[in-house]
What we know:
- Helix 7 packs across helix 12 (245-265) and helix 8 (172-189) crosses helix 9.
- An eight-stranded mixed sheet has the order 3-2-1-4-5-6-7-8, sandwiched between helices.
- By secondary structure, the protein is α/β, with parallel strands linked by helices.
- The protein has two domains: 4-161, Rossmann fold; 172-260, ProC C-terminal domain-like (ProC C-terminal domain-like fold), CATH 1.10.3730.
- The protein is globular.
- The protein is built from twelve helices and eight strands.
- The longest helix is centred in the C-terminal third of the chain and has 21 residues, at 194-214.
- The structure holds 1,4-dihydronicotinamide adenine dinucleotide and (2S)-3,4-dihydro-2H-pyrrole-2-carboxylic acid.
- Its main location: cytoplasm.
Amino acid sequence: xxxxxxxxxxxxxxxxxxxxxxxxxxxxxxxxxxxxxxxxxxxxxxxxxxxxxxxxxxxxxxxxxxxxxxxxxxxxxxxxxxxxxxxxxxxxxxxxxxxxxxxxxxxxxxxxxxxxxxxxxxxxxxxxxxxxxxxxxxxxxxxxxxxxxxxxxxxxxxxxxxxxxxxxxxxxxxxxxxxxxxxxxxxxxxxxxxxxxxxxxxxxxxxxxxxxxxxxxxxxxxxxxxxxxxxxxxxxxxxxxxxxxxxxxxxxxxxxxxxxxxxxxxxxxxx
Length: 271
Ligand SMILES: NC(=O)C1=CN([C@@H]2O[C@H](COP(=O)(O)OP(=O)(O)OC[C@H]3O[C@@H](n4cnc5c(N)ncnc54)[C@H](O)[C@@H]3O)[C@@H](O)[C@H]2O)C=CC1
Ligand SMILES: O=C(O)[C@@H]1CCC=N1
């Protein structure tokens, strides 16, 4: 089994480590780097996986997964540049950062694969989209797809679609959590105890997600099946339309895509 090193073990780095362990990887095949020693100690205690320095990670790992914030990428590239060659495989999980950035800063020919995952990786339900950089072959893509298939679903997309993917599925879980949070508040408004409102909404979300995943029906048809003539649901739908919730979602997701593009542009060479 390949040795995988996660560079930057924050929320998504931890989700990947945890997901890979649940997916059957041995802690001996996983490494991570982390700038905060207390965080590193916490992860070692929780998962039995060892924190190492970047040089050690580059020497020992077959796959180096970059999971620092896009704003923190520069020192990581400086550290990696003298350590990697064509035999390495770099996988970037960073929102907005193009493979071309890595290719400019690392040695000639280092293969880079850009991935946008999401946090349901923690429970083996990630949605990940992968794109090959200029030096990544079909074999490199196959390695990364195989790795990510242990923690959820994987699709391959042209890199030009990655900012849109980031806005949809990368950030997507946050929109659902936001919606659930607001619906629980509605239960409070109607006088239900918080715990009961939470149970009602979370199980409704789980059931709806399962129906979406398992039935071949379009979401419109699933919604129509809940919406009885002169019933309760249509009154709620009228309010959602009146308050522009659909337009708000379109604008919100477009804003997320714009931010992803901007994060990449921040690292373009100055001319
Ligand atoms: N949180 C999410 O839902 C998703 C995040 N991503 C991407 O994953 C990356 C990480 O995001 P989060 O995990 O949310 O951020 P985070 O801030 O939780 O984690 C980043 C970690 O990297 C560490 N770090 C920073 N510089 C370092 C260095 N030079 N050496 C070693 N460790 C270093 C930090 O101490 C921190 O623990 C970002 O680029 C983000 O765009 C992608 C998909 C989803
Ligand atoms: O908010 C962010 O920038 C990261 C990328 C996708 C999800 N979270």
